[in-house]
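**Paired protein data**
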Amino acid sequence: MYKFANITPGIVFDLPFYGKVYVPGQFSEAFAENTKCHFFHSDDLENLSDLVNFLSKGGIAVLKGDWKSAAKLPERLRKYRDELIAPFIDEARQKGTIRNPRTRRWLNRRYQQTLSHIMLLAHNDIFPEIKPSPRIPHLLELLGDKLDAVNDLPILAPLPVVLKILSALENGHYISAFDMEIFSPPNVLAPFSQDTVDLFAEALQIAGDYIKTHELEILDMGCGSGVLTLLAANVLDDRNIHIFSTDILPEAVAATKINAQRFNQKSNTNVKIETTES
């Protein structure tokens, strides 16, 4: 399922023993004035009992330390699923709905929400408390918020979301029309149909043959991952073109920016691609 836009405003949270941090809107519901936050160092997580107990009570765990150890945490926590969501399982048992398929889906969502309470601190697209620090360009947008939402504050990002974004950055969708892999983040529709992309490429080529001017302005409204933007840049690269790509999703805007940069580096071109939120 793909969301249309994040309408929940982000919040500034006073993280104990650290200071003010920004929590993107779609993750802010987990935070309240009495929310308990605690730093956990990866070197201290050989035994997960303290972390499991803390998360099961609604706490927010902020990770420090080794990146490889941090990245393995969601997988290691699988066997503690029932402990992590014990209060919700007890509620379902009391209601007699524990075997209901709808209840099982609800419990799974609760489990995923609990895992998202494992957070990483990010600043300027890197994670300074984690070594070696992974880097995610346009991180705030990929977390669903606009660039002007945060005033140079560190950002709290859920570990499972960070892992999904990093996986998407490394494992793109190959587009034969311009011989490149497209990055599509979790909430942005990926270009799964190669035939559809080829059809658009052919249409752009035919349209280009009929356009006599060599100065073109092109609008890609609802750009998504930017595949049509890059098709236009590839097919009409002999023209003086300026492409405007817009989308209501910050994640889509970020994906198009990343893909456009990759395209220009690969193709050694300087096509003007301006990407903005609509």
